[in-house]
Design a protein that fits this description.
Helices cover about 35% and strands about 20% of the residues. The protein has about 140 residues and is an alpha+beta fold. The protein has one domain: Roll (CBS-domain). The protein is globular, with a radius of gyration of 17 Å.
């Protein structure tokens, strides 16, 4: 059985609920990610922030304000106000099939992966696309 640890990303970029929408947007752009696990001061996972959440909380680029004003407004919105707290998670020994089913059932696009109660990785839809591409290339040989 192939487990999620064989496909997940274990380099995590996390934020705290007191960080702002602006800081989350910057992290997503800088690290080219679409999901940020939110942890408390002790490092315990408490929620998830997705690019979709950021877009919903952001001011439209069609609004007649400049970037500085937009950043100031987004700096006033703590992540705690928009993060998702009801998140499906998986243990590191979960099968890829079960993880894929969870991703289809929920609409967050990622699955935080745990070892016991410690966050150790994140599995995303993109990881499954990379796997599919790899499998298709190998089957074409």
């Amino acid at each position: 059985m192939i487990t999620v640890t064989e496909l997940m990303m274990d380099q995590l970029y996390t934020l705290k609920p007191t960080n702002t929408v602006h800081q989350a947007r910057d992290l997503m752009l800088d690290k080219q990610i679409r999901h940020i696990p939110i942890v408390d001061n002790s490092g315990k996972f408490i929620g998830l922030l997705t690019k979709r959440d950021i877009l919903a909380a952001s001011i439209s680029s069609l609004a007649e304000i400049n970037n500085t004003e937009r950043e100031e407004l987004e700096d006033g919105i703590p992540i705690a106000e928009i993060m998702i707290t009801d998140v499906v998670v998986a243990q590191e020994d979960a099968s890829l099939l079960n993880a894929a089913q969870h991703l289809l059932d929920q609409k967050h696009g990622c699955l935080p992966i745990f070892r016991g109660d410690k966050l150790v990785g994140i599995l995303t839809e993109s990881d499954f696309v990379r796997l599919a591409v790899h499998l298709m290339k190998n089957s074409a040989k």
